[in-house]
Amino acid sequence: MPPSVLLSSVFKPFAINDIYSRKESIIELFHNQLTKAQGIYSIRHHYDSHGIYAIANNLDTPCTVLDFPTQKRFIREIEKGYDYVGISSIVQNFQKVKWMTEQTRKKSPRTKIIIGGFCAGIPDLQKILDVDYVCIGDGISFMRELLGMTPEFKFKNPDISTDFVELLGVPLFGLPKAPQIIVGLGCSYGCDFCSPSHFFGRRHIKFYKSGRTLFEEMIRVSKRFGTNMISLVGDDNFLIDLDRAEELRRCVVDSGEIFSTLIFGSADRVMEFGPEKLAEMGVGMVWIGRESQFSSYPKNRGIDMKSLVAELQRYGIKTILSSILLLDNHTKENVRDDIDQHLACRPEFSQFSHYAPLPETPLWNRMRDEGRLIPGIPWEEMHAFNEPWFYHPHFTVQEAKDIQEEAYQRDFHELGPSWVRIIEAEYEGWEYLRKSNKAHLRARADFFARQMWKHKILLVALDHLVPSTQMRELVKGVRRKIEKAFGKANPIQIAIASGLFITGRFQEFRNRHWGDVIQPPTRFIHFNNDP
Question: I need a labelling partner for 77 at 20 to 30 A (CA). Which of 4, 23, 202, 340 fits?
């Protein structure tokens, strides 16, 4: 009889101050990191803990996944007496992992406990927690070997997704979920702060080694979920393998399919592959680590980031631009210049992360050796979007927190809501690509044109909702361009926009008095894998 296996994420609730967590640990990529200061204009969504699903779907034995359980639900499951229980977590949820291991030992003493995710990198974890195994690196190969299988496998992507749950206070019922494809793991560049790169041994692990096989999976999940919006996740620098990207581009162009994919790509590789090829490949958004004008990472050497972002926007490709605050050479004077340089790029989304030393990274080791890690800081407070946990030569902890808040506030008030930036980028893409001599790019322009109906609704609502005259002028400027090309909003669109305005105002009131935390749903899935 095969061993019974349970893989679980940590328990909810999240984003509250308790003995297990902190209110800053919002389990939403956008609302936590990318639209942090945008309030009701933030994109609200849930997403599956893709690592445990990937492991479960690639074992030659039945495996159960429990994602975002309550404490009671987790206890009820472990009381079934699984042979193995794997718990996946980030460092900031260490206290939740500790409680879960203690409960597993108490309720099912014979169960073997495995800890994975970035939490596994905590120094001497097996001395701190009563666990049997700690998995650093590729969890699929680790679990296969542990269970007596060959470590080699042909990757099978699980059906996982992003679920958009709210827009301006309106619950988004009935919308298709956006599928995720786990294309690989890690990045070989090895930037000193990058947990994924060093957690996977500075390797670029490809689950899809050819563009053809990845294209076939994109077709499958787009039909399965009923949408062309796909996130390519896990791989922190998709464009490292330019041959794979080129093969994927050819497959997409030959098929005539129009996708809107999210990828992660370093600036040097984005430049080398080029925005036009990215557009042909179906990229709708790319995450680029700008880091800082004062950093020396080779991936950004000689790159005019402002021009690169503008060229991507010309093809309708949105940019998530990530910058680092609190580098060692940041001072109170030059850090604002760095923020100015970031905002001058006018990305659709901005991340301003503190320089974040975490276990398994060279940055952690260096600051530990220099005696710069502040002693006594609990793991749950090592959150790159709140206060730093290391001594900086020019900033106190509070000053560091304030400069990050200032950066996010400036991003929102100077560039406007990210929704408006998205609409403007898609308008620019339509305007440029409709004149292309390539049929596939003209078809992409037609895809953007079909989005303008709903974009007009949102712009009318935002025109009345936004909190400042400066922001209203940004909205009006985009609205004028859209209406000149596609006509003014009709009565139905205006009526829908009025509804969005009302719900938006109510959401502001609700957030002010009751907060804006949205907890993810619990998922329980059994993978009945054939050996």
Answer: 23
Residue 391 has pLDDT above 80, yes or no: yes
Instruction: Give the pair of three-digit tokens for residue 89.
Output: 């977590």
Q: Give yes or no for a contact between 385 and 24, defined as CB atoms under 8 angstroms apart.
A: yes
Residue where a domain stops, chosen among 314, 330, 365:
365
Same domain, 131 and 201: no
Q: Give the list of residues 6+ apart from residue 355 with CB closer than 8 angstroms, or none.
A: 193, 324, 325, 326, 327, 328, 363, 388, 390
d(CA 213, CA 251): 10
Please give the angle made by the CA atoms of 115, 119 and 124, to the nearest 5 degrees.
Answer: 80
Dump strand ranges (E) for 40-159: 44-47, 63-67, 84-88, 112-116, 133-134
| Residues 208, 214 contacting (CB under 8 angstroms) | yes
d(CA 413, CA 269): 31
Task: Read off the tokens for 113.
Answer: 């406990």
Name which of 429, 425, 436 is nearest 253 in CA terms.
436
Return the closest-CA partner of residue 286 out of 321, 335, 311, 251.
321
From first CA to last CA, the distance across the chain in angstroms is: 12
pLDDT, tens digit, 9 for 90 and up, residues 30-83: 999 999 999 999 989 988 999 999 999 999 999 999 999 999 999 999 999 999
Going along 104-147, which residue ranges are E strands? 112-116, 133-134
Q: How many CB atoms lie within 10 A of CB 1?
A: 4
Domain assignment of residue 506, given as a range: 424-514
Q: Are residues 448 and 361 in the same domain?
A: no
Query: In this structure, are residues 178 and 227 in contact, taking their beta carbons and an 8 Å threshold?
Result: yes
Calculate the CA 513 to chain-centre distance.
Answer: 28
| 225 shares a domain with 133 | no
Same domain, yes or no: 149 and 19: yes
Instruction: Report CA dihedral (132, 47, 200, 61) to the nearest 10 degrees.
Output: 50
CATH at 85: 3.40.50
Residue type, 257: E
**DSSP E strands: which ranges in 138-211?**
160-167, 170-171, 178-186, 205-206
Distances (CA, A) of 209 to 176, 190, 260: 28, 21, 21
Count of domains for the chain: 3
Q: How do residues 448-473 score in pLDDT, each as one tens digit?
A: 999 999 999 999 999 999 999 999 99
Q: Are 199 and 236 in contact (CB under 8 A)?
A: no
Give the contacts of 162 (CB within 8 A, at least 6 positions apart). 45, 46, 47, 177, 178, 179, 180, 231
* Cα(182)–Cα(53) distance, integer angstroms: 10
Q: Is the pLDDT of residue 146 over 70?
A: yes
d(CA 174, CA 180) in angstroms, rounded, equals 18
Whether residues 283 and 212 fall in one domain:
yes
pTM for the whole structure: 0.95
Task: State the Cα–Cα distance between residues 424 and 406, nearest whole angstrom.
Answer: 25
